[in-house]
Design brief:
The protein contains eight helices and six strands; from the N terminus they run ααβαβαβααβαββα. By secondary structure, it is an alpha/beta fold. The protein has a single domain, classed as Rossmann fold (3-Layer(aba) Sandwich). It binds flavin mononucleotide.
């Protein structure tokens, strides 16, 4: 009963309905046979074009260099309204929508092979924007649309050891719930970037590029086996 109510509220919202439809497309039988594999990176910094977006850009460079079939897209959540409470069945209020449906549509590309999430470290954890976004992905969780898709995580902190690794792990914990295939850098959980490194964080950005390459290669292998 409670689940039915939750479901009604969730689907009763215009924005969620669009998102649910979009999520359904990803699992549909319309998957392109072009061979392209799409990798979408999502920056969960409230600051547009800053270090998290830059680190994800490096990831996507690494991914693109891995194979000519890789297509990439960077989505920045900065400035967007993403309200996590709708995932719990709490209505956004009469007539109110948020920006999640547009993001859901972009994540519903039938060629989607991987998602890379990047978040700044805020008090040793992900940003509230990142958590709200992951909660709203629930429409994909319900349909199992992300099951078997590859995921990588980047965390950017203002300190060298500011909690990047625990932040990466906490994002990964969420993505495990989506039955995603988590990929790290080989030696580390994900890319740990230091935004205030004097002269730039060569090591952290190298990790980001390596992560992107590994995510792409894994997505290609899984696509071939699908
Ligand atoms: C509320 C808040 C909390 C923060 N907490 C941490 C922290 O725990 N560890 C850390 O290394 N940096 C911390 N920072 C710094 C940010 O992680 C850092 O500035 C990062 O580069 C921001 O990413 P952006 O440039 O993509 O916005 C914090 C910043 C803010 C605003």
């Amino acid at each position: 009963m409670a689940d039915q109510i939750t479901r009604r509220v969730l689907l009763g919202s215009a924005s969620a309905a669009i998102a649910a439809t979009a999520a359904g497309t990803a699992t549909g039988a319309e998957a392109s046979k072009s061979g392209a594999v799409k990798i979408v990176a999502v920056s969960c910094s409230p600051r547009k074009g800053k270090t998290t977006a830059g680190a994800l850009g490096k990831c996507l460079e690494g991914a693109k260099a891995a194979n000519s079939r890789i297509e990439t897209e960077l989505i920045e959540l900065a400035g967007l309204d993403i309200d996590g409470s709708l995932a719990a069945g709490v209505s956004l209020g009469k007539g109110r929508t948020d920006d999640f449906p547009g993001i859901a549509a972009r994540l519903s590309d039938p060629n989607l092979g991987a998602v890379i999430i990047g978040t700044p470290v805020y008090f040793s954890g992900m940003t509230s924007l990142c958590k709200a976004f992951i909660e709203r992905l629930m429409v994909f969780w319900r349909k199992g649309s992300f099951a078997g898709k590859v995921a990588g995580v980047v965390a950017v902190g203002g300190s060298r050891n500011g909690g990047q690794e625990v932040t990466i792990r906490s994002v990964q914990d969420c993505l495990f719930c989506y039955d995603m295939t988590l990929v790290g850098t080989g030696k580390r959980f994900g890319a740990a970037v230091w935004s205030k490194a004097p002269g730039g964080d060569t090591d952290g950005l190298g990790q980001a590029e390596n992560l992107g390459r590994r995510v792409a290669k894994t997505a290609l292998v899984l696509k071939a086996k699908a």
